[in-house]
Design a protein that fits this description.
The chain has 124 residues and is mostly beta strands. Strands 2, 4, 5, 6, 9, 10 and 11 form a seven-stranded mixed beta sheet that branches.
Length: 124
């Protein structure tokens, strides 16, 4: 129904930075809450960050608080994840997600639209 396309993943050394982008169709983008999950090999899906219709409404996992920043630009139909001071344990496939409504959840089952994922690898 809703196509989400992630980009910006890659290989970076510990302490470096990456910026992920997620593009979505423009018709109703501003009506969706957006977020990011990640999944490392042998691990379950893990909540990273989410953002509501207002940029003041944001939520972060404790493991990334202070290092990652989620933002959105409704004019460009795009959500971003700025990742700073990356650590090897941040290595994972990162997924862009979306849901109707403005309530933010850390439960992946609450988000009904998922992108295909982009690989982030952090070397020591």
């Amino acid at each position: 129904q809703v196509q989400l396309d992630e980009s910006g993943g890659g290989l970076v050394q510990a302490g470096g930075s990456l910026r992920l982008s997620c593009a979505a169709p423009g018709r109703t983008f501003s009506s969706y809450a957006m977020g990011w999950f990640r999944q490392a090999p042998g691990k379950e899906r893990e909540f990273v960050a989410a953002i509501g219709w207002s940029s003041d409404t944001r939520s972060y996992a404790d493991s990334v608080q202070g290092r990652f920043t989620i933002s959105r630009d409704n004019a460009k139909n795009t959500v971003y994840l700025e990742m700073n001071n990356l650590k090897p344990e941040d290595t994972a496939v990162y997924y862009c997600v979306a849901k109707m409504g403005n309530i933010l959840y850390s439960n992946p089952s609450r988000y009904n639209y998922w992108g295909q994922g982009t690989q982030v690898t952090v070397s020591s």
